[in-house]
Design a protein that fits this description.
heterodimer, A: alpha/beta, seven-stranded mixed beta sheet, B: alpha/beta, Aconitase, domain 3, 2 domains, 15 helices, globular, binds iron/sulfur cluster
Amino acid sequence: MILRGKAWKFGDSISTDHIAPGRYFHLRTNLPELAKHVLEDANTEFASKMSPGDFVVAGRNFGLGSSREHAPRIIKLAGVKAVLAQSFARIFFRNSINVGLPVLEIDTSGIEQGDELEIDLAAGTVRNVTRDQMLTFAPLPDVMVKILNDGGLVEHFRKYGDFNL
Amino acid sequence: MASTLSEKIIGAHLGRSVKPGEIVITGVDVTALQDGTGPLALQQLEDLGLVRAENPEKTILFIDHAAPSPRKELSNAHMSLRGFAAKTGAVLSEINEGVCHQRLVESYASPGDILIGADSHTCTSGALAAFSTGMGSTDVGIGIATGKTWLKVPETLRVEITGKFNRGVYAKDLILSLIGDISADGATYMALEFSGPGAEAMTMSERFTLANMAVEAGAKTGLFASDEKTRGWLLEQGREECFQELKADEGAEYARTVEIDAGTLEPTISAPHTVDNTKTIGEAAGTKVDQVFIGTCTNGRIEDLRIAADILRGRRRNKDTRLIVTPASRSVYIQAASEGLLEVFAEAGALVTGPGCGACVGVHGGILGDGEVCLATQNRNFQGRMGNAEAFIYLGSPATAAATAIAGEIADPREYLR
Ligand code: SF4
């Protein structure tokens, strides 16, 4: 499957507090409402200006901090099709796969705000259409590919009734 | 094959030896949720028709992050936790009981356990030689219903501690300094294993502080070998029978070893907005502070409160600096009351609150104003952490916090010790 969209560029160390701020703790049981504030503390315009299909592109250690699964869930719910970063924090990475949000570890240094990207998840490539560059990302571990292809861990369980990794 | 502590614990669950990088499906001994992550987990289980707990007496639902509830949405979230506990027999930890990680080490986690919790600081129980790690709501929900999870056996970064702390320097200073050195992603996907004579000499309280912050270096867990101190802790909690001695094998393979001489450390703080933005107290002293917060799963234990009270006894907070003290659990609260510490804090001008997460996560009870500065004993200082992205959070030890409350600016605790 080829994903096409625009890059929204973020820096290093974007924490789960940037993505799903604690002051909206009470909205955690209302994800569509919480999604209106996604990444608000990193870029106040992101939630209102992004278009479904766009990508989040960041630097090192994206998603560090708390275990709140609400963070990848609201990124996905906002319509972001994939997150690309130099590296990810462990719990965020695992949560993203569990909720069916593709997370790609890739050299993002050459991607700029607004660049048009084309991602081929199966081939492991990202084409920067704006800059006519081709990038490759490290393949996910097999278990994660399985969970992601099933649409997340809940769907995986719905399908198999148990872990089938 | 010689095994690290992680490999040993996971291997014991599978009945075979394991290697780093291997993916395993394993039984879990303890599962935990809190009021921020729990409702979503329970929602997933309901969707799956899996409203059950495989080990109800070892499934703990904590109401601690927003306790007591500051608004109706959260009251409703709390109701969902209570409802699940009533239906499945899972244990409910009510608003008066305290922070999940402190409660886990007091009453539920044991050496050799695999423990998963939907809270990133679940690594705290690693100090009891339990392989304990934070995951998201769905992972822990599935763990609750099935008693199983999948794990990648981590590589281990060994932290070899030698030397003794100088006066005014504590475990918090060591862990902040370590994270400053290896950075906030220095141990991503790895287990930390704290060892060496310095680790052996540490009290359980100090070990909990170190293990608690393993995740701030990106680690999956932060382990200590279990020894006579561990046994003593479990005995104090009335569950000595949960003790078993566990340590890494001689010759186990580590991805990396970092050495720290505790004797070379100074009081250390993390400056806004990342934990690895560390400075020695000399570099940070003099910064005006609007609020000081002493508490949390990192430094809200009785030993922490004693250190702070020794500095605050007979003194007053600076008139422009608010001071909030929040014991980590009910038993810490009772102990602090019986030792007269709560009185010391109140007389020094502190607001002493009931046990729980308190001001740590920005939900209630101590949200900062625009441009305000806080010095807190918690484990993270990300932008927006205490409820306001326009505020600034510094992290330090309970001693640094107490000294800072008196001075009204970040202060060197060594100047206030008696
Ligand atoms: S005290 Fe703070 S860090 Fe600890 S569990 Fe509560 S909110 Fe999380």
